[in-house]
Automatic annotation (TrEMBL):
Residue stretches of biased makeup (Low complexity): 204-216
Domain of life where this protein originates: Bacteria
Gene Ontology BP, a term: translation
Keyword DNA-binding: no
Name of this protein: Ribosome maturation factor RimP
Gene3D superfamilies on file: Ribosome maturation factor RimP, C-terminal domain, RimP-like superfamily, N-terminal
Organism of this sequence: Phyllobacterium sophorae
Length: 222
Protein backbone atom coordinates (compact mmCIF):
# COMPACT_ATOMS: atom_id res chain seq x y z
CA UNK A 1 0.00 0.00 0.00
CA UNK A 2 1.40 3.43 -0.95
CA UNK A 3 1.81 6.28 1.51
CA UNK A 4 -1.07 8.11 -0.18
CA UNK A 5 -3.32 5.08 0.10
CA UNK A 6 -2.39 4.64 3.74
CA UNK A 7 -3.23 8.27 4.47
CA UNK A 8 -6.58 7.92 2.71
CA UNK A 9 -7.32 4.77 4.69
CA UNK A 10 -6.43 6.48 7.98
CA UNK A 11 -8.64 9.44 7.10
CA UNK A 12 -11.55 7.11 6.28
CA UNK A 13 -11.02 5.26 9.57
CA UNK A 14 -11.02 8.51 11.54
CA UNK A 15 -14.24 9.61 9.81
CA UNK A 16 -15.77 6.25 10.67
CA UNK A 17 -14.98 6.82 14.33
CA UNK A 18 -16.41 10.34 14.23
CA UNK A 19 -19.62 9.68 12.29
CA UNK A 20 -22.60 9.53 14.62
CA UNK A 21 -24.11 6.05 14.82
CA UNK A 22 -27.11 7.24 16.83
CA UNK A 23 -29.09 9.88 14.98
CA UNK A 24 -32.44 11.62 15.13
CA UNK A 25 -35.76 11.13 13.34
CA UNK A 26 -38.57 13.47 12.32
CA UNK A 27 -38.25 17.15 13.22
CA UNK A 28 -35.11 16.44 15.27
CA UNK A 29 -33.46 15.01 12.15
CA UNK A 30 -34.40 18.07 10.10
CA UNK A 31 -32.86 20.34 12.70
CA UNK A 32 -29.73 18.18 12.90
CA UNK A 33 -29.32 18.34 9.13
CA UNK A 34 -29.45 22.13 9.27
CA UNK A 35 -27.14 22.76 12.21
CA UNK A 36 -24.50 20.03 11.93
CA UNK A 37 -22.52 21.64 9.07
CA UNK A 38 -22.79 25.03 10.80
CA UNK A 39 -21.39 23.58 14.02
CA UNK A 40 -18.55 21.92 12.13
CA UNK A 41 -17.68 25.23 10.46
CA UNK A 42 -17.02 26.87 13.85
CA UNK A 43 -15.15 23.95 15.40
CA UNK A 44 -17.91 22.05 17.19
CA UNK A 45 -19.51 18.62 16.70
CA UNK A 46 -23.11 17.69 17.26
CA UNK A 47 -23.94 15.22 20.01
CA UNK A 48 -27.73 15.26 20.02
CA UNK A 49 -30.83 17.22 19.04
CA UNK A 50 -34.04 16.81 21.02
CA UNK A 51 -37.33 18.71 20.82
CA UNK A 52 -39.35 18.36 24.02
CA UNK A 53 -42.41 19.85 25.69
CA UNK A 54 -40.31 21.39 28.45
CA UNK A 55 -41.29 25.04 29.15
CA UNK A 56 -43.85 24.92 26.37
CA UNK A 57 -41.46 23.71 23.68
CA UNK A 58 -37.69 23.42 24.01
CA UNK A 59 -35.13 22.59 21.35
CA UNK A 60 -32.11 21.12 23.11
CA UNK A 61 -28.88 21.06 21.15
CA UNK A 62 -26.11 19.12 22.83
CA UNK A 63 -22.68 19.84 21.40
CA UNK A 64 -18.98 20.06 22.20
CA UNK A 65 -15.73 21.25 20.70
CA UNK A 66 -13.75 18.78 18.65
CA UNK A 67 -11.36 18.35 21.58
CA UNK A 68 -14.25 17.47 23.91
CA UNK A 69 -14.39 20.70 25.91
CA UNK A 70 -17.39 23.00 26.28
CA UNK A 71 -17.60 26.22 28.32
CA UNK A 72 -20.38 28.66 29.12
CA UNK A 73 -18.86 31.01 26.54
CA UNK A 74 -18.93 28.19 23.98
CA UNK A 75 -22.63 27.63 24.66
CA UNK A 76 -23.28 31.34 24.11
CA UNK A 77 -21.26 31.31 20.88
CA UNK A 78 -23.15 28.31 19.51
CA UNK A 79 -26.49 29.83 20.48
CA UNK A 80 -25.68 33.14 18.77
CA UNK A 81 -24.48 31.32 15.66
CA UNK A 82 -27.39 28.90 15.32
CA UNK A 83 -30.26 31.23 16.20
CA UNK A 84 -30.29 33.21 12.92
CA UNK A 85 -29.78 30.02 10.90
CA UNK A 86 -32.78 28.39 12.54
CA UNK A 87 -34.81 31.57 12.11
CA UNK A 88 -34.17 31.51 8.36
CA UNK A 89 -34.66 27.77 7.85
CA UNK A 90 -37.61 27.71 10.28
CA UNK A 91 -37.84 23.90 10.80
CA UNK A 92 -40.24 24.29 13.75
CA UNK A 93 -43.58 26.00 13.17
CA UNK A 94 -44.16 27.08 16.78
CA UNK A 95 -42.52 29.24 19.43
CA UNK A 96 -39.73 27.40 21.19
CA UNK A 97 -36.82 27.89 23.58
CA UNK A 98 -33.35 27.18 22.23
CA UNK A 99 -31.14 25.44 24.78
CA UNK A 100 -27.48 24.76 24.03
CA UNK A 101 -25.61 22.50 26.43
CA UNK A 102 -22.55 20.33 26.87
CA UNK A 103 -22.98 16.53 26.97
CA UNK A 104 -22.20 16.45 30.72
CA UNK A 105 -20.39 13.68 32.56
CA UNK A 106 -23.06 10.97 32.19
CA UNK A 107 -23.14 11.77 28.52
CA UNK A 108 -24.84 10.08 25.59
CA UNK A 109 -22.47 7.96 23.52
CA UNK A 110 -23.27 8.63 19.87
CA UNK A 111 -20.01 7.87 18.06
CA UNK A 112 -17.85 4.76 18.00
CA UNK A 113 -15.05 6.95 19.31
CA UNK A 114 -17.15 7.74 22.39
CA UNK A 115 -17.17 4.05 23.30
CA UNK A 116 -13.41 3.85 22.72
CA UNK A 117 -12.74 6.87 24.91
CA UNK A 118 -14.83 5.59 27.81
CA UNK A 119 -13.80 1.94 27.71
CA UNK A 120 -13.84 0.57 31.25
CA UNK A 121 -16.77 2.68 32.39
CA UNK A 122 -20.38 1.64 32.93
CA UNK A 123 -22.87 2.25 30.14
CA UNK A 124 -26.60 1.71 29.62
CA UNK A 125 -27.57 0.60 26.13
CA UNK A 126 -31.02 0.22 24.55
CA UNK A 127 -31.18 -1.78 21.34
CA UNK A 128 -33.61 -1.41 18.46
CA UNK A 129 -34.34 -5.16 18.40
CA UNK A 130 -34.16 -8.06 20.85
CA UNK A 131 -30.62 -9.27 21.45
CA UNK A 132 -29.91 -12.28 23.69
CA UNK A 133 -33.54 -12.13 24.83
CA UNK A 134 -33.63 -8.47 25.83
CA UNK A 135 -33.31 -4.90 24.63
CA UNK A 136 -31.66 -3.23 27.63
CA UNK A 137 -28.07 -3.75 28.71
CA UNK A 138 -25.90 -2.33 31.45
CA UNK A 139 -22.26 -2.98 32.16
CA UNK A 140 -18.66 -1.93 31.66
CA UNK A 141 -17.38 -1.28 28.19
CA UNK A 142 -14.86 -4.10 27.84
CA UNK A 143 -13.90 -3.90 24.19
CA UNK A 144 -14.76 -1.93 21.08
CA UNK A 145 -14.34 -3.29 17.55
CA UNK A 146 -15.23 -1.79 14.19
CA UNK A 147 -18.73 -3.28 14.34
CA UNK A 148 -19.65 -3.82 18.00
CA UNK A 149 -19.09 -3.00 21.65
CA UNK A 150 -18.60 -5.72 24.25
CA UNK A 151 -20.35 -5.07 27.56
CA UNK A 152 -19.58 -6.92 30.80
CA UNK A 153 -22.57 -6.74 33.18
CA UNK A 154 -21.96 -5.04 36.53
CA UNK A 155 -25.38 -6.13 37.82
CA UNK A 156 -25.73 -9.74 36.71
CA UNK A 157 -29.30 -11.04 36.60
CA UNK A 158 -30.30 -14.71 36.58
CA UNK A 159 -30.52 -16.05 33.06
CA UNK A 160 -28.72 -13.10 31.44
CA UNK A 161 -25.36 -13.56 29.79
CA UNK A 162 -22.68 -11.69 31.80
CA UNK A 163 -20.84 -10.64 28.63
CA UNK A 164 -22.67 -9.46 25.50
CA UNK A 165 -21.41 -8.12 22.19
CA UNK A 166 -23.78 -5.43 20.96
CA UNK A 167 -23.55 -4.52 17.26
CA UNK A 168 -23.39 -0.77 16.71
CA UNK A 169 -26.13 -1.03 14.09
CA UNK A 170 -28.54 -2.26 16.80
CA UNK A 171 -27.87 0.52 19.32
CA UNK A 172 -30.84 2.87 19.68
CA UNK A 173 -29.55 4.75 22.72
CA UNK A 174 -26.45 4.65 24.90
CA UNK A 175 -25.43 6.70 27.92
CA UNK A 176 -22.69 6.58 30.54
CA UNK A 177 -23.78 5.75 34.08
CA UNK A 178 -22.67 8.26 36.70
CA UNK A 179 -20.16 6.59 39.03
CA UNK A 180 -17.35 7.85 41.25
CA UNK A 181 -14.81 6.48 38.77
CA UNK A 182 -16.48 8.27 35.87
CA UNK A 183 -16.61 11.60 37.73
CA UNK A 184 -12.93 11.31 38.66
CA UNK A 185 -11.79 10.35 35.16
CA UNK A 186 -13.99 12.94 33.42
CA UNK A 187 -12.72 15.76 35.62
CA UNK A 188 -9.13 14.65 35.16
CA UNK A 189 -9.54 14.44 31.40
CA UNK A 190 -11.18 17.84 31.23
CA UNK A 191 -8.29 19.35 33.21
CA UNK A 192 -5.72 17.66 30.96
CA UNK A 193 -7.50 18.97 27.86
CA UNK A 194 -7.62 22.51 29.15
CA UNK A 195 -3.96 22.42 30.16
CA UNK A 196 -2.93 21.01 26.78
CA UNK A 197 -1.72 17.63 27.98
CA UNK A 198 -3.96 15.82 25.48
CA UNK A 199 -3.41 16.95 21.85
CA UNK A 200 -6.58 18.16 20.15
CA UNK A 201 -5.87 16.21 16.97
CA UNK A 202 -5.84 12.97 18.98
CA UNK A 203 -9.17 13.74 20.62
CA UNK A 204 -10.80 14.56 17.32
CA UNK A 205 -10.56 10.86 16.49
CA UNK A 206 -11.50 9.63 19.91
CA UNK A 207 -14.44 11.66 21.27
CA UNK A 208 -14.39 13.19 24.77
CA UNK A 209 -16.66 13.88 27.77
CA UNK A 210 -16.84 17.21 29.52
CA UNK A 211 -17.46 18.02 33.17
CA UNK A 212 -19.17 21.31 32.34
CA UNK A 213 -22.98 21.27 32.50
CA UNK A 214 -23.41 24.88 31.40
CA UNK A 215 -26.51 25.72 29.44
CA UNK A 216 -27.57 28.74 27.43
CA UNK A 217 -31.23 29.37 26.70
CA UNK A 218 -32.71 31.72 24.18
CA UNK A 219 -36.34 32.15 23.18
CA UNK A 220 -37.07 31.93 19.46
CA UNK A 221 -39.60 34.44 18.18
CA UNK A 222 -41.60 34.30 14.97
Amino acid sequence: MTDGAETEHETASAKGLEQRIITETGVDARVAGIIEPVLESIGFRLVRVRLSGLNGLTLQIMTERNDGTMTVEDCELVSRTLSPVLDVEDPIDRHYHLEVSSPGIDRPLVRKSDFVTWTGHVVKIDTSAVLEGRKKFRGRIAEVSADAVTVESDQASYGDKPVVEVPFEMIADARLVLTDDLIRDALRRDKDLREGRIPEETDAAAGEANASAAEQEQTKQD
